[in-house]
Amino acid sequence: MYIIQIGSECAPVIKAGGLGDVIYGLSRELESQGHTVELILPKYDCMRFDHVWGMHDAYINLWVPWNGDRIHCSVDCGWVHGRLCFFIEPHSPENFFNRGYYYGASDDPMRFAFFSKAALEFLLQSNKRPDVLHCHDWQTGLIPVMLYEMYQYYGMANQRVCYTIHNFKHQGMGGSDILRATGLNRPEYYYDPSRLQDNHHFGAINFMKGGIVYSNYVNTVSPHHAWEARFTEVGCGLQSTLELHQTKFGGILNGIDYAFWSPESDRYIPFPYSAETFGDKKLNKKALREKLALEDSDKPLVAFIGRLDGQKGVHLVHHALYYALEQGAQFVLLGSATEPAIHNWFLHEKNFLQSNLNCHLELSFNEELSHLVYAAADLIVVPSNYEPCGLTQIIGLHYGTVPVVRGVGGLLNTVFDWDYDETHEPKDRNGFVFFETDQIALESALGRALDLWKLSPQLFETLAIQGMNCDYSWKKSGTQYAGVYEFIRHKFPALVPEEPASDPSASA
C-alpha cells in the first residue's frame, strides 16, 4: 500500500512529546512490512534540521487557496533517519511556522487549519494519490472534512482516511473564520451537531470532532483508553460523538522503536546489557550516581521521567519522591513542568533537597540523560491521572526497570501486577499497579515493589527480566494498522462519513 502520514510532529526532527515518536516508529515499521510511506509535516523554523538528510526542493510553487486569496508555499523534501518527509513552508505575513516554537500561539487553530489545507493542496497539485491518509490529532482533524467536502470532487475520491487521536484533552476549536479561510464556508451547514459543532460550545467548530465524523476509521492509542474515551470523562465531551460512530472506533496500542530504545545497543549508556546479562545493569546505576553525585550505596533507585503536569499525576510524583526517601531508597526525577506554579513547586523541593545525596531533581528534559536513567533505575513510577498509552512504562520494561503505575489507559494494557493480576500467569506479570488517586494507593504499590527489592532480590530480578521479555515493539501494532488500512480500502466504495450529510450539495 501507499500510505501518507500527516501530522504536526515526527521525531527526532520535530518532537514536543510522544506523538513524534509514534509517527516515526509506525512509519518505520510499515516500511519494514513492505509498504510505501511518506510523511507531510510543517516546516518549523525551530525544528532539528541536523536530523534531515538531503534536503532539497520538491515543489517550489504551491499556491494554496486561503481566505479568498492564495498563499504561496514551497515544499522541501528530505530523509529523517530513512523516512521520506515533505516539509510545507508558507511564505506569508502570518509566519505560520516561523515562531520559534511548535505550539502555544493564540492562533494555533488557524495555523494548523492552513497546514491541513496546504497538505491536501500539495497532494492534489503534485498528483500524489495514496491509498490511505493517516492523520494525527486535532491539528489534522479538518483534513478528512475538506477531503470529503471539497477535494474528492477534484480527483481525490479514492483516498481513505485513518484518524488517530493521541490525546482527547486538546481538540482544536475555531469559528466561522476558519470555515471562511479554508473555503469550506457555509457555517449554517457545518454548525450542525452531526458535523463540526462542538458538543458543549455551540458557537465553535471542533477540529477533532470533524476528524471523527468524516474519517473512515478512528482510533486512539490503546484499547483501554478507547473504552475510557467512550464511557468516562476522559472523552472530554466527545463521548456522544464516539458513541454515534462506535462502529468505526477502536484502540491500537502504541509501540516503541527497539532500534533506538534497547539496552543492548543504546549509545547513550556506558554499559550495554540484556536479559541474559542483567547483572551489568547495576554498572549503569553506579555511572548515574557518579554523574549526579548521588551516594554510592546498596539502595534501590526509583525514577520518574516525563512532564510535570496534571495529566501525569504530579501530586503523586511529589509524594513518591518523599515516600521513596522515607523507605530508604534513592529518587531521580527528570522532566520539565508545563506550568510556572508546578515548576516553582519542584524548584523549591530541588533547593530544599540539594544537600541530600539520595535524590536528584533535573527540572528539564534531556534525551541523552533519560536513556541512562532508564538503564540505571530499579523502579519507575507512572502515577498518571489519565494516560492514552504511555511510552515511559514500555521503555522501562525493556530496560528491566520495573514500572509502578496507576491502572488507567494504556498503562493497564501493558503492566500486570506481580501480586494481584488474575488475568495473566505469574510468568507474564511485569510490574505493580494501583487504581486510586490518593497517596495511600501509591504507597501500597510502591511499598510492595520496594519490599520485593529488599526482601527477595532474586524474585525482583525475575520480575524485571520478565518485563524485558515483553514485546511492545511496533511489529504487532504496525500489523494492526495495516489491517485497518486494508479494511477501509475495501469497505468504503465511496468516501462518505459514517452519517452522510442530508444536504444534497454535500453528497458524493
SSE layout:
Blueprint: E1 2-6, H1 18-32, E2 36-42, E3 53-66, E4 69-80, E5 83-91, H2 108-126, E6 132-136, H3 142-149, E7 160-165, E8 173-174, H4 176-182, H5 187-190, E9 205-206, H6 207-214, E10 217-220, H7 223-231, H8 239-244, E11 249-251, H9 281-292, E12 301-305, H10 314-326, E13 330-334, H11 340-352, E14 359-362, H12 367-376, E15 379-382, H13 392-398, E16 402-406, H14 409-414, E17 432-434, H15 439-455, H16 457-468, H17 474-491
Parallel strand pairs: 1-2, 1-6, 2-5, 6-7, 7-10, 10-11, 12-13, 12-15, 13-14, 15-16, 16-17
Antiparallel strand pairs: 3-4, 4-5, 8-9
Helix pairs in contact: 1-17, 2-3, 3-6, 9-12, 10-15, 15-16
Protein model, in words:
The longest helix has 19 residues, at 108-126. The strands form 3 sheets. Strands 3-4-5-2-1-6-7-10-11 form a 9-stranded mixed β-sheet, with helices on both faces. The protein folds into 2 domains: 2-255 and 477-492, Rossmann fold (3-Layer(aba) Sandwich), CATH 3.40.50; 278-468, Glycogen Phosphorylase B (Rossmann fold, 3-Layer(aba) Sandwich), CATH 3.40.50.2000. By secondary structure, the protein is an alpha/beta fold. Helix content is 36%, strand content 19%. The chain has helices spanning 18-32, 108-126, 142-149, 176-182, 187-190, 207-214, 223-231, 239-244, 281-292, 314-326, 340-352, 367-376, 392-398, 409-414, 439-455, 457-468, 474-491; strands at residues 2-6, 36-42, 53-66, 69-80, 83-91, 132-136, 160-165, 173-174, 205-206, 217-220, 249-251, 301-305, 330-334, 359-362, 379-382, 402-406, 432-434.
